[in-house]
Request: fold
Amino acid sequence: MDYDWNEDQQAIGEAVEALCTQHAGAARAIELDAKSSWDEALDAALVESGFAGVALGAPDTGPLEAAMLVETLARHAATLPVGAQLLVAPKLSGSVQPGPVALVSLAHPGPVRFGSHARTALVDTGGDEARLVSLSPGDTEPVVSNFMLPVGRVAVHAGSGEGLGAGSGPALRAWWRVALAAELLGTMQAALDVTVDYTKRRRQFGRPIGSFQALQHRLAMCAVLVEGTRRLAFAAAAEERPEESACVAAAHAADAANLLFRETHQMTGAMGFTREHDLHVFSMRLQALRLELGGASAHRRAIAATRWARGS
Amino acid sequence: MEFDWSDGDLAYRRELRAFLETELPANWKEMTADGPGSDAQAAFSREFCGRLAEKGWLTQMWPAEYGGADATPWRHAILSEEMWRVGEPRGSQYMNVNWIGPTIMKYGSEEQKAHHLPLISKGDVLWCQGFSEPEAGSDLVSLRTAARLEGDHYVVNGSKIWTSYVSGADYCFLLVRSDPESKRHKGITVLLAPMDAPGIQVREVPAVIGRRYFHELFFDDARIPASCRLGPEGEGWGVVSYALAYERVGAMRYARAALTLDSLAEAARERGLQGDPVIQEKLGAARCAVEASRQLSYRVIDLRAKGSEPTADTNIARVAGTLCENAVSDLALELFGPEALEYGQFGESYWRLAMTAGVAVGTTEINLNLIASRWLGLPRE
Reply:
């Protein structure tokens, strides 16, 4: 048992922090959003620095370290499907896939994150076998979206591409949920950070609004939920075959995300809704992420089905 | 980060479960119906803790020089989980081991250590905690119970309230104000008061959460030997802060919640509700709250194992623990519906036990205050 990163993990974390400072950040996300684009340069930098294969680096690195990268990149507003590319696709297919990678669930039709530019799709057909699909430009169709990420429809069906073998369906759903929890975690942490900072500086009635207990208790409750998500996400990522733990992490994260959205916007007032303040980059993404795979309700039912289905 | 239990820890947990199988009496469920402060559970804790002591498990986390085994905080956490899981057969004696003993080790005189620590180690002494007063709850430093030194005794006047575990208690870990001129943190003194001292009277405060849960202690010229003072006179707040840092993670209450939730899922299945999406969602949501509480408590154990000073991680874990008990206990009533109206019914019993979660051992509001200032760095009001 050790709830801190060890030295090797810390070194990876610091390296990716440095890379994010150089290539990512809210300003970069806003710039890319204006062009409905994805971050090709950051993607190339991750591949070049060797981070793209961290999930496959056994015995030195694996999904836990990949989840740490996902959290960090999300916290720095990377405009990339970091969970899909760094964790889910390598774990499912055994190799790094050409990005952007789109995750598609046939049970939840509609546009998907990075579906606009995707070159690879991982498809959850709802059954026992997931599918890996190489996409050509004709397979994707951009959709105008306000959620601070490029979005599009991907033309795939239950027979597209190649099957990834027996059991790959449940594995895709599990690792997707782990990655989702890690992305939500980083995004929530950033939304909380910019909001706490705002309430320390914004003065009304002659004092910082962050000194009001009416706000302090709610921000503290946000911190409790973010820290819970952190522990659940990384504990799930460390499991060989996360099943229940993946559903638990995703459900906790998706629920927390909506509360974080409401509270951070409430406390930043009109300023938080503008494109001049960084909050919207993170808060709008929280909404897009929390809807995936059916959202918190579906994750919660999946917990019940996984944990207590036996004998029923 | 690394989340695996050692083989030794896993084996220890198995051994504990087997021990509990044989040691808990056949009427254990009935015995726990009125809550951990009842006469029956207080009496049983003396037998049970004696047997736990014989196994070397009661005070295993204490240093070897005080008869412990220098066990890791993880080992002690496993013990706490397994005990809470089945309804805390140690009764109030978990407090002795978790914080009263360690505080005596830190601040006690040689005589106090020689007297109290062996009693605790044998598992045959009951303590209660004399902190709250009618006018000093969350604002503990407003306490007014007065102690003045007369010769070799303190003469104590005042009252304590909401005191638990008074049934059969031998000693009270008592906070008094020894300097009548003092305010707030200054002038507080800790007394290790024998409950049979002249001038102490006890009244049960009847409460809906269980029998013998709350008491009022009246001190009417009570005479407590001066040798019972723990630490320097007037500097008791430092002693209390040390004790509270140990106390706040004491009970692994999620362990009981987790077991209860599994039983609720089983009860749902028996009622043909396993496919009901509303029930599934509620079970799933409660499971999230249980697991978040467990993980955040483990973070606190991890910090303690590393010898870190107490941080706001403790307060975060406490709030998550309350969310956990609320989620499970809400469901415990809703699932059984009118059946839960019967006193002692399974859902009712757990719900009643969990009712105090946000109040006991420091309210949620106090914990949120501390998270706001220590974790988020928000300015004081």
User: Anything to note?
Assistant: Chain B is about 50% helix and 15% strand. Chain B has three domains: 7-125, 128-235, 248-375. Chain B touches chain A through 53 residues (CB under 8 Å).
